[in-house]
Amino acid sequence: MTVSLDTPLGAGQSESRQRIKRSLSRMVGFLGQMVRNPLTAIGGGIILLLLIVAIFAPWIAPYNPLVQDLNNALVAPNGQHWFGTDEFGRDIFSRLVYGARITLYIVLLVSVTVGPLGLLLGVTAGYFGGKVDAVLMRVTDIFISFPSLVLALAFVAALGPGLEHVVIAITITAWPPIARLARAETLSLRQADFISAVRLQGASPVRVLWRHIVPLCLPSVIIRITMNMAGIILTAAGLGFLGLGAQPPEPEWGAMISSGRTYMMECWWVVTIPGLAILINSLAFNFLGDGLRDILDPRSA
Known about the structure:
Helix content is 76%, strand content 0%. The chain is mostly helical.
């Protein structure tokens, strides 16, 4: 009796180990492809650095980003203040480090929201077609017809300034392109032979969408979300510049540019350094998206 019970258990454990090994092998292979791709390596390296800076901000920043020191206002970059100080004597390097947390908070929260929302609406419209497709796509067209920054500005103006309202506004304006992409992918898949075979076996529409169509749409959606992150950073910075994002004295990069533009002719570092941070990180997300497209999308090979 003991042998008959132990044998299936050992076989099950062996099968679990093999699945884990296969998953680890695929993960290592994917990471190897990312490293070998120059665009992905550069973009991923910069984003990894941004994550490290955001996580370890209290240990990296040499000064408190909110404490003012008017005796050291508008000091040029030097050994004590690497990126200089702003009009209130606050260390710009420390504010950039803590501002990375705000930027990542907006990017990650918007991305994890618009991805499922756009994917759900897109595959639903593409698979069912007819009136469902017409209604969902007309709503999508209404949102796409307005420039994203203008629409986000309108929503934030209606909701009021604040970081959470910025996230909501950008989410509302960022899902339509993902929905259209998911719909296009679904339209090309729903008449495929294997989908017809699954339907003939009695699979429900929900099962067909969840088990077969959604996994095939995921690579394209992930690539699009990654490339949209640069636009999210720019939109958040634009709203912060207009005073509708994170409110003072929070060290948001767009707000730093806005507060320093008065002194930009005499003190270039007050505006230039936050602007470079926005530029470099936007390019990094674009590089990562281009690299992921080369790796995940077989049609780009």
